[in-house]
Amino acid sequence: MTNKEEIQLIVNDARLGKESAFKKLLNTYWSDVFRFQFSKTNDEEEAEDITIKTFAKAFDKIDLYNDNYNFKTWLISISKNIFLDSIRGKRNETVSLNKGNSEAYYISDDAPSPEDKIIIEQNLAELLRHIKKLKPAQQEIINLRYFQEYSYKEIAEKLNESMSSVKVKLLRSKKLLSEIIENKK
């Protein structure tokens, strides 16, 4: 494990935007954050999604990290908040109780209305225009993950790269895409 001074140097490099520093932080703390999330969710896929969101948020806000605290503690705090937000989002389900029957049924209407379909198509077309502003390698990794729904492992195999490299590149690509979208407004 890396000591506090080494972590501080890596964090400083990350603040300067060095991709190798982001990879080191991801590799050093991935399993800690994932284990924490898995203990909360008991769902491997959800734990991985929240872990990825944790690193995305941490890397995006790395300038806000206070050097007086342990970096792992900061990551776990971010992860805990993302987990709590996801729980709050799940509470908005509708429950129907049948009279004379003690069973509860969750009702979910996932079918989009005709208006929703038009909005979705327009938003998708606009998103694709924004994605085309990225470098080809960034376009490819976003396409593989979100449009072709490849797993991180499948992307790593297809691009002949490590999983941690794929995760960092995807985080960076998403951040750049977000900036492109924000600058449009």
UniProtKB/TrEMBL annotation:
Membrane spanning residue stretches: none
Domain RNA polymerase sigma factor 70 region 4 type: 126-177
Record CDD domains: Sigma70_r4
Domain RNA polymerase sigma-70 region: 28-91
Gene Ontology annotations of biological process type: DNA-templated transcription initiation
Keywords for this protein: DNA-binding, Sigma factor, Transcription, Transcription regulation
The keyword rRNA processing belongs to this UniProt entry's keyword annotation: no
Similarity comment: Belongs to the sigma-70 factor family. ECF subfamily.
Name recorded for this polypeptide: RNA polymerase subunit sigma-70
Species per Swiss-Prot/TrEMBL record: Urechidicola croceus
